[in-house]
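User: Run a structure prediction on this.
Assistant: Running it now.
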Amino acid sequence: MQKLIHQYGRGLIKEDEPLTEIGNFLQGNIPATIREVVERAKLAMVSRHGNTIVEDDLLVIGRGMKKHLDLLNKDRNPPKSDAEILGDALGRVIGTAVMTKQEGIDEKVVQIKRDTAVIKDAVGR
């Protein structure tokens, strides 16, 4: 890990710079993430008017990036609460009952129209 950090630093990280803590912190990340931490640490170095990247630069950037990555990787569809599950179930039951009732009403309307037509035919003769 430390070798990779040095490589991405392109000479801006002293060989004797302790990188144990940042190495442990970045353990398990893909190389692209590690490279991004180092690239951003270069900007931190410039902002503090330094000539080399120190482990603190890397740690500050790494912690900030971890917060951003955690937000991006957060579950976008959290599990539903018991109340939401109950609400969904009740909605389906009520919806089915309303549709069934509506179908029964529709059938009665059709029957009334038929009966009305029969009565009109009988009276009109």
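The first helix runs from residue 2 to 9.
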